[in-house]
Design a protein that fits this description.
alpha+beta, two-stranded antiparallel ribbon, 8 strands, 2 helices
């Protein structure tokens, strides 16, 4: 009986996929884009339509850009796999130079805000690890911080 429960619990936590799964969507660039081939963030609903396997990345990203045109702020979003490879990477394998995909760990988890006063934009770039981590409206670190604070207050 104990072995059966252990195997059942193990299968619940087993994930056969090695690639991280991220949500992917883009801001609409123009009215001329073909909506059939574009996954617009304006219609983002966390459905399978927006899921991609990130074979060349270990992280997901979400970018929010706020444009201030003086008559209100317009916000756009973009989600996807973090760019962590270089297209020209090669290695000498068996005496021949061969194209290889090497994943570089260049991002830290969390968000960074960039303000551009010349263009009147504010960009928030967030990077995270884990399947579907770029789907939340807010960074999950704030949720974790709130839970930890609550636990400390109770103790």
């Amino acid at each position: 009986m104990d072995k059966t429960l252990f195997l059942l619990a193990l299968t619940l936590f087993y994930n056969s996929s090695e690639a991280v799964k991220c949500y992917f969507c883009e801001p609409l660039a123009s009215n001329y884009q073909d909506i059939r081939y574009t996954k617009p963030c304006e219609k983002f609903d966390k459905s399978d339509l927006y899921v991609v396997d990130c074979d060349s990345s270990t992280m997901c990203f979400k970018t929010q850009v706020d444009f201030d045109f003086g008559n209100g702020v317009t916000t756009t979003y973009q989600r996807g796999c973090a760019a962590q490879t270089l297209s020209g990477d090669q290695r000498n394998i068996g005496g021949k130079w061969t194209h290889v995909t090497r994943i570089y760990e260049v991002y830290e988890e969390g968000c960074k805000i960039e303000k551009d006063s010349e263009r009147l934009t504010t960009s928030t770039h967030c990077y995270c690890r884990g399947d579907y981590c770029n789907g939340a409206a807010k960074n999950r670190q704030y949720t974790i911080l709130a839970v930890i604070s609550l636990i400390i207050m109770i103790i």
